[in-house]
From TrEMBL:
Residues 174-343, 358-718 form the Choline/carnitine acyltransferase domain. It catalyses: 4,8-dimethylnonanoyl-CoA + (R)-carnitine = O-4,8-dimethylnonanoyl-(R)-carnitine + CoA. One of its GO terms (cellular component) is membrane. This is Carnitine palmitoyltransferase 1A2b. It is found in: Membrane. Residues 1-47 form the Carnitine O-palmitoyltransferase N-terminal domain. The lineage of its organism: Eukaryota, Metazoa, Chordata, Craniata, Vertebrata. The chain crosses the membrane at residues 54-75, 104-126, 338-356.
């Protein structure tokens, strides 16, 4: 039984001579150490709360303020302008302290109040500084005087070493854009996608909305923005993720891959042991707030770290109407030895048990959960899984770029991480780690609690710690020795009646049909990378985005609404915003390129398109996006019970090209010069539209871009795997100062 324990703290028997008490000192020692760890954790939390509570000042700065006030009083000067005397009059200490003592206590009280006031002032100043975003829109090498003053001020107030959450209270709130600006930008974004009559009809709808219902909805939204920390995030999580009633497998969850060329060990249990250890080391850093806050690359500007709070011990639970997220209390902060974890994994493999965990639609799973998993052994076993830090799957297949068909094997590797066998992943966990038979690894992440950059940061640390710090013995096993006193793993007990088995079979059929329909293709593009692109004085992201639109145009013969994910973590509790990458400028460039315009004209149009893309990206990052604002207005309209033809049409438009870049955030962990084979493959996701593509890409080093393309076999108009054609011999166009073939993005 899961609740049976082999080790107890003491045993006793009753004999004619009395009670024979036998204490297990080893077990008592473990109890003692557990208590010590718990108290250390409490002390650490109090200390961290104090440090981040006074940031950007330090706790020791109180001493300097107090000494300064006492020193000025010693020199017969009153820095408080009479406030110390008033404090002394109201302190209930007249009978217990001398006059000098009362003055001393009053001065310390004044010093504390002054110190707290200074902290609030510093925090307010930092918040104002972090609310300035104009620096993002300035061209390279052309810094304005305002920005020149702003930079040293931000550095000055950020000079102290921060904890993970030190900046949270200083981050600005996400602003609500003016409704006329959002409507205007929306119409501009759809102009190249609509005919003249369609655009006139949409313009009429938009103008009607702006002049009537829109202003009413906007007032409610501004009221929420004054009250809530972030006017978007809670509704985004609730209505986009938790209220979705379909399977989250493929439709919501995303995956991350292992190194492309390297597998540190072929021993499955050893790779799992090191991976679990690295993840627990990361969790300890999160708990102790030892991680450095993420920043905008190349700057000191911090990003919101709120998503890290839900990284471990978090599970999404289904409901009939809406789901929930639960982050459970973590028991202890210790890390078992890697070899002990390895031994446990060998024991678990020897148990050979099966728990069929499909990814059904949310309503049947919620009903089964309430009826059959709310009590008894099923509830106890389910609680253990849902309270766990994360889920681990020991897969019985081999994956990776290997064998006689490396390209096809990479595609199968992606599909396996995206959905597996549909019953061997726990898709509701914050993330599930998958370790394959040949030692290859990966993860599947649930989307409601965090976005890909947060998970990517975790996975980068895990891969680097596994390969470069923990390491393996010559025969591929974990390093170190095991402590024999540590407990063995326990098998979970389940009671699965016939009704549940029938629902499992039905849900499994739905999940398998969904999984079989996904067409995944992963390919490393090695012809050039960001190094060559940047020589053209073009943003690598803009270059790739325009290339993807060109590929779609050649594939489908037209343009489409294009989704590119951008973060809004410059603001507190910010998540994402949509960059509508298909613009008038990008369409003009592609049309000119395909119609055979001159190289000079194509070059000019491409520069305009790339600059436009970067401006759209910056606007999305700084709270001037389109889609989250319109989404929240739509939610308000539903609460008010009013219909908006404009909002209804906007929210129903399909994203046939959904794209996202996986950022490389911790290059210091990977020495690509000395270890060039330790290249991350990045990760991917399923297609958003049934007749569209999902494209994820990661820019690795200077000379490589890895792409993940997904679509659905059921759509006859889409196919993920089309060979890329590249040849310097073919007809070409000029971009910047370099010549590129006209076939370079035949079909990414």
């Amino acid at each position: 039984m899961a609740e049976a324990h082999q080790a107890v703290a003491f045993q006793f028997t009753i004999t004619p001579e009395g009670i024979d008490l036998q204490l297990s000192y080893q077990a008592l020692n473990q109890i003692y150490l557990s208590g010590v760890r718990s108290w250390k954790k409490r002390v650490s939390r109090v200390r961290n709360s104090l440090i981040k509570g006074v940031y950007p000042a330090s706790p020791s700065s109180w001493l300097f303020v107090a000494i300064g006030i006492l020193a000025t009083m010693y020199m017969q000067s009153d820095p408080s302008m009479g406030l110390i005397t008033k404090i002394q009059q109201h302190l209930p200490l007249h009978m217990s302290l001398s006059a000098q003592g009362q003055t001393m206590v009053s001065a310390l009280v004044f010093s504390t109040l002054l110190w707290l006031s200074l902290i609030l002032a510093l925090r307010f100043c930092l918040k104002l500084l972090l609310s300035y975003h104009q620096w993002m829109f300035e061209k390279h090498g052309r810094m304005s005087n305002t920005t020149k003053v702003w930079v040293p001020l931000v550095r000055l107030l950020s000079s102290r070493k921060p904890l993970l959450y030190s900046y949270q209270s200083s981050l600005p709130h996400l602003p609500v854009p003016a409704i006329q600006d959002t409507v205007s930008r929306y119409l501009e974004s759809v102009r190249p996608l609509l005919t003249d009559p369609e655009f006139k009809r949409m313009s009429d709808l938009a103008n009607e909305f702006e002049s009537n219902l829109g202003n009413r909805l906007q007032r409610y939204l501004k009221l929420k923005a004054l009250w809530a920390t972030n006017y978007v995030s809670d509704w985004w999580e609730e209505y986009v993720y938790l209220r979705s009633r379909g399977p989250i497998m493929v439709n919501s969850n995303y995956y991350g891959m292992d190194f492309l060329y390297v597998t540190p060990t072929s021993v499955q249990a050893a790779r799992a042991g090191n991976t679990i250890t690295a993840l627990l080391l990361y969790r300890r850093k999160v708990n102790r707030e030892e991680l450095k806050p993420s920043r905008v690359p190349g700057t000191v500007i911090p990003l919101c770290a709120a998503q890290c709070e839900r990284m471990f011990n978090t599970t999404r639970t289904p409901g009939v109407e809406t789901g929930n997220k639960h982050t459970h209390t973590q028991n202890g902060n210790d890390i078992r030895t890697t070899v002990w974890i390895l031994c446990c994994l060998h024991i678990i493999k020897a148990m050979i048990y099966n728990i069929y965990m499909s990814s059904p639609p949310r309503i049947p799973w919620a009903q089964m959960r309430k009826q059959y998993f709310s009590s008894g052994v099923n509830k106890r076993s389910l609680d253990i899984i849902e309270r766990a830090a994360f889920f681990v799957t020991l897969d019985d297949e081999e994956q990776g770029m290997r064998g006689d068909d490396p390209e096809g094997n990479l595609d199968r590797y992606a599909k396996s991480l995206l959905h597996g066998k549909c019953y061997d992943r726990w898709f509701d966990k914050s993330f599930s780690v998958v370790i394959y038979k040949n030692g290859k690894s990966g993860l599947n992440a649930e989307h409601s609690w965090a976005d890909a950059p947060t998970v990517a940061h975790l996975w980068e640390y895990t891969l680097a710690t596994d390969a470069f710090q923990l390491g393996y013995t010559e025969d591929g096993h974990c390093k170190g020795d095991v402590e024999p006193s540590l407990p063995q793993p326990q098998r979970l007990v389940w009671n699965i009646p016939a009704e549940v088995q029938a629902q499992v079979s039905s849900s499994l059929a739905v999940a398998q049909a969904l999984a079989d329909d996904v067409d995944c293709h992963v390919f490393p593009f090695r012809e050039f990378g960001k190094g060559r692109i940047k020589k053209c004085r073009v943003s690598p992201d803009a270059f790739i985005q325009i290339s993807l639109q060109l590929a779609y145009y050649r594939d489908r013969g037209g343009f489409c609404l294009t989704y590119e994910a951008s973060m809004t973590r410059l603001f507190r509790e910010g998540r994402t915003e949509t960059v509508r990458s298909c613009s008038n400028e990008s369409c003009a460039f592609i049309t000119a390129l395909e119609s055979g315009e001159t190289e000079e004209e194509c070059r000019r149009l491409f520069q305009l398109a790339s600059e436009r893309h970067q401006n759209l990206y910056r606007m999305a990052m700084t709270g001037a996006g389109i889609d989250r604002h319109l989404f929240c207005l739509y939610v308000v309209s539903k609460y008010l019970g009013v219909e908006s033809p404009f909002l209804k049409e906007v929210l129903s438009e399909p994203w046939r090209l959904s794209t996202s870049q996986t950022p490389v955030q911790q290059m210091n962990l990977f020495d690509l010069k000395n270890h060039p084979d330790f290249i991350s493959l990045g990760g991917g996701f399923g297609p958003v539209a049934d007749d569209g593509y999902g494209v994820s890409y990661i820019i690795v080093g200077e000379d490589m871009v890895n792409f993940h393309v997904s679509s659905k076999y059921s759509c006859s108009q889409t196919v993920s795997n089309v060979s890329v054609s590249w040849s310097s011999e073919t007809s070409h166009t000029v971009v910047g100062n370099h010549i590129y073939t006209r076939q370079y993005s035949q079909a990414f």
